[in-house]
Amino acid sequence: MHVSDLPVPAAVREHYRASGIEELYPPQAAAVDAGITEGENVVAAIPTASGKTLIAELAMLTADGPALYAVPLRALAREKYESFAELPGVSVGISTGDFDSPDEELGEEDVVVATAEKVDSAIRNGASWVEDLACVVVDEVHLLGRERRGPTLEVTLATLQRRAPGVQIVALSATVDNPEDVASWLDAELVESTWRPVSLRTGVYDGDDVTFDDGSTLGVDVRDVGPDEERDTEATASLVEGAIDSGGQCLAFVRSRREAESLAARLAEAELAPDAAAAGDLAEEIRGVDGTATGRRLAAAVESGVGFHHAGLVDEHRALVESAFRDRELGVICATPTLAAGVNVPARRVVVRDLERYTGEEMSKLPVLEVHQMCGRAGRPHLDPYGEAVLVGDERTAEDLWDRYVDAGPEAVESQLAAREALRTHVLSVVASGFADSTAGVLDLLDATFFAPQSPDVDLSGLLATVAGELAEMELLDVDGDAGGAASADAERGRGDGPDPRATASRALAATDLGETVSRQYVRPETGARLIEGVRTIESMADADVTALTALGVVCATPDMRGTYLGNRERADVYRYASRHAAEFTTAPEEAEDFEAWLCAVKLARLVFEWSEGASIEALVDRYRVGPGDVESHVERVVWLLGAGDALAGTLGADVDVFDRVRRRLADSVEDAPGDEIGRQPR
Ligand code: ADP
Predict the structure, then answer these.
(1) 111-115 and 92-95: which strand pairing?
(2) Is 32 in the pocket of ligand 1 (CB under 6 A)?
(3) Does the beta carbon of 21 sit less than 6 angstroms from any atom of ligand 1?
């Protein structure tokens, strides 16, 4: 099918032609055949670089009203926003900011790009633009299988379909084992394809050479190494250098931040910079962002044409590395797997050195889907004759790698909504935002989620009774007008001698004022409960003891605050600090349910406190052994949670203003910090 046959405005067709798009790629043509331009729901499960953006645009441009494009990450929202903004005659808005505002002005735009979390929070805050949507595109819908993001995505989609009846849903997915399940849930046509614009061969290095799935082999020169464990690094170095020598670029994936940096340092020993002058300018720019040791290491590596990329980097460094790689100023990026799920950075060769990762308890093998996404980054359309992905093994592991990642398909997408924590959040939000006012109403909505068809045997009403009881105990939900937890009592009796909750009739549900605030502030119920407890304790404390550290201690101990870890030597130091400031904290060590978590919360509170007192990111990075990007994201989350704490203090009618004071102070420091863009939405 030719671009001139598309039912989009002539200026858009011209725009496509000018960007080199004449004939539709086969999966794109299949999407048109499936009715994408006629309002049909479509699930497209197709590989990276097979042209999903155009599929989305065709749906959004032919829809009979405004469209929403939902992405999982903020960095992706920015990338898509910029790409849609190039479409002639189309107005585009972006929404990734505050969680507690409905962003009504977005109703004016033809296309709104937003993170899925932001869409969820806009719905909770009663955004009316949501009701006018004619088309919703969900990017990376396979994330339905993720523990945190998945439940939000499925409940958001189920609610959107109710809020905007008849809305066209287009879901874009990586290739997964069960795309038909996703399609059937969304009542959508399935477009499934393994077609790629650039052919991809995948191979395994066995300690000797690489064997590819097309039968070809590649010799790998590995310089003599002493200990065994470095052989994979040397093989990786050789593969990277080979790709660059033949005019390509390379992505090398490793398991951790530290490994990414040390591989980069190793690779920088060879001069890989395709353009030394550009690399010098880039290094200068990187040094200009901040003076941290991480920034200096990055700048030094970049001078040799080597970048690294991981979550410990500040956003600006990450963006610089990505764009320099796209502009071919860098020969290689050493990255943790998060890069594969993020923005568009294709390379001729992808080398996956580490196929296991430490999960906090043990080393575990990477999921097939994740490895395929990394491999899928190989081969840049119009630039590379082919793409190549190499998994680095040795004589012992090569066969297993082949069986697991080359021969076998990816995993199925499975709903994670049954997790109690996720259910609590979403049950509260559907009741608080007025979607349901009874257990029957909630069940009705849950029936429209991905979870329901996937798990027909699960007793949803029993689960709901338990969860409603837990929310009632947290003072967030009234069950049958009884905030004392009638449902939880029933649930506890469920398997005993009392009435079976599954058999009991529908019960009325209503969010309490506190529950409404928790839902609007977009914090988890457990976080809400902890903040409420914190507010009450602060009310009872002597004024002199209530300091910035008090409020920071409360928010840093909530489950919405992402954890940090403690080094052995740090533990004693943090404990001493906590003891010195014991009167200011709302929880004493002996009251903590989990001592280690308590220490981590104290560490975070101290870190953010020192930042607010003017400590530089460099000093904090050094003192607390975190990445500069961690400081940025910790502060961001704390600002958001302090806002929630203040809102809950308001709902409680408590005379507690410390959350607001500290939040303002942090927000001012954020504004003063050059180069930092810290909004209220956590990443
Ligand atoms: P993905 O499926 O990974 O989202 P994109 O939509 O970003 O892939 O497309 C990858 C690249 O292919 C883009 O540079 C895009 O301009 C180009 N492209 C998409 N469709 C076509 C086409 N029909 N003909 C030529 N190039 C195309």
Answers:
(1) parallel
(2) no
(3) yes
Distance 387 CA to ligand 1 centre (A): 15
CATH topology of domain 200-407: Rossmann fold (3.40.50)
332-335 and 306-309 beta bridge pairing = parallel
> What is the dihedral sign for C-alpha 598, 600, 602, 605?
negative
Q: Note the ipTM here.
A: 0.98
Superfamily holding 3-192: P-loop containing nucleotide triphosphate hydrolases (3.40.50.300)
The amino acid at 95: S
Q: Is the pLDDT of residue 459 over 90?
A: no
**Residues 71 and 148 sit within 8 Å (Cβ to Cβ):** no
In the sheet that holds 332-335, the strands lie side by side as 217-219, 209-212, 200-205, 387-392, 349-352, 250-253, 332-335, 306-309
| 93 Cα to the center of ligand 1, angstroms | 22
Q: List pLDDT tens digits, range 248-299.
A: 999 999 998 999 999 999 999 887 666 778 888 999 999 988 878 889 999 9
pLDDT of residue 589: 82
Per-residue pLDDT reduced to its tens digit, 86-105: 999 999 999 876 555 556 67
Q: Is the CB of 52 within 6 Å of ligand 1?
A: yes
Q: Which residue has the higher pLDDT, 675 or 365?
A: 365
Q: Is the CB of 83 under 6 A from ligand 1?
A: no
Minimum CA distance residue for ligand 1 atom 1:
49
| Alpha carbon of 22 to ligand 1 centroid (Å) | 11
CATH of 523-672, one of 3.40.190.80, 3.30.70.100, 1.10.260.40, 1.10.3380.30: 1.10.3380.30
Q: Is 48 in the pocket of ligand 1 (CB under 6 A)?
A: yes
Q: 16 CB contacts (<8 Å, ≥6 apart)?
A: 3, 6, 54
